[in-house]
Amino acid sequence: MTSHLLAPLDLAFWNIESAEHPMHLAALGVFTANSPTAGAHAAELLATRAVAVPGLRMRIRDVWFPDVRLPLAFGGATREPVDDFEPFDHVRLHAPTADFHTVAGRLMERPLERGRPPWEAHVLPGEDGTSFAVLFKFHHALADGLRALTLAAAVMDPIDMPAPRPRPAEPPRALLDVRKLPDLVRGTLSDLGRALDIGASVARTTLDATLGARSSAALTSVASGTRRTAGVLVDLDDVHRIRKTVGGTVNDVLIAVVAGALRRWLDERGDGSEGVAPRALIPVSKRRPRTAHPQGNRLSGYLMKLPVDDPDPLRRLRTVRAAMDRNKEAGPNRGAGAVALLADHVLPLGHRLGGPLVSQAARLWFDILVTSVPLPSLGLRLGGCPLAEIYPLAPLAHGQSLAVAVSTYRGSVHYGLVADAEAVPDLERLSGAVVREVRELLAACEP
């Protein structure tokens, strides 16, 4: 294993973290236990297998005095292997519990240790002995959703998969060649032009999205640093029935369900949904398999106003579909969500110095995150125990109280909700609103 400089967006995630806003993503998997000791056996397996996964032995180290071959790395960070890796420091077996999400919420509050490989696996045995859960936490600088899935799958029971295509070796870094300076200057100017173009698009579309938009105090409360999680299961066949009736994509339906659920939740808790149209950031992956940073985050995103104030469920869905069609037509290099692409045009020292400021500014761009995390269709197992449910969990940005992540797995849609526990003490009510919104959309689609 060799060291690699962090990709620009990874470095941004590393530097915007604070104690109240840890930048780890997670997944809570619920397994069907085949014995009362299945949870303890799972913890032992995870620790044993983690040793053989190179990506789990990587820590992030700040770079203040870079190699002379990397003159622009000052103030950056590297991803490098550790020799004294202790897997049992990262895999922890907890006491039996009757509520996996209550424990997961408390564990989501805690930032990962920055001096060690930034990931953890927490095994939560169920009190009744028929199930156990595993909460995987990965720092966003170590892995995005797809990479985190790959790392987690590597410690599951082996699955017969086709052999991956070999990745070409990364060329060795060479000393700076002065003969290439003219090309470097032209490239820098070209990058600057792209950055200015993206920046202008971000500013313009952020203004457009802000006009006429109104969020709710429940979504933008002052952060307490506490966390609460919840999970919702929806039948994927129901989602397909809705999609076939109205058109659009499965993702359009899933976003519209979030809008309708927020409307129900706000009305039920007495906050009111009239005039509420929060700005949702919908991340879009731009990763290419053979880039210079194969493990790095490559994200853009779409920005849209959720039609929370519209009382008609089908009209809400059509509004979401139209907004997503406009975003796709413009492409991920346009719009407020493209602000993440600007990270590529900032020197490492700029990320280090500007990280706290950027974290404070997230609420200027969006009010709620709604992200989709891909999962394999193959059934996963741990110690012979099948994975029955899997809830993706996203980090909370500064100034925001709720984040929604969605995955489809073996015929079901899994909504993972993360909230500030003090700002949103009734997250279970929002979970119920998701289920009722799907039912209402199905009823509205009946002839």
Automatic annotation (TrEMBL):
Q: Which domain of life is it from?
A: Bacteria
Keyword match Oxidoreductase: no
Q: Which reaction does it catalyse?
A: an acyl-CoA + a 1,2-diacyl-sn-glycerol = a triacyl-sn-glycerol + CoA
The record places domain O-acyltransferase WSD1-like N-terminal at: 6-253
The keyword Calcium belongs to this UniProt entry's keyword annotation: no
**Which pathway does the UniProt entry assign to this protein?**
Glycerolipid metabolism; triacylglycerol biosynthesis; Lipid metabolism
Keywords from UniProt, A to Z, are: Acyltransferase, Glycerol metabolism, Lipid biosynthesis, Lipid metabolism, Transferase
In this chain the O-acyltransferase WSD1 C-terminal domain maps to: 296-441
What broad class of enzyme is this? Answer: transferase
Checking InterPro entries in the record gives:
Acyl_transf_WS/DGAT (IPR014292), O-acyltransferase_WSD1-like (IPR045034), O-acyltransferase_WSD1_C (IPR009721), O-acyltransferase_WSD1_N (IPR004255)
**What's its EC?**
2.3.1.20
Q: Which Pfam families match?
A: WS_DGAT_C, WS_DGAT_cat
Q: Please report which protein family the annotation says this sequence is part of.
A: Belongs to the long-chain O-acyltransferase family.
Query: What is the protein name stated in its UniProt record?
Result: Diacylglycerol O-acyltransferase
Q: Which organism is it from?
A: Streptomyces akebiae
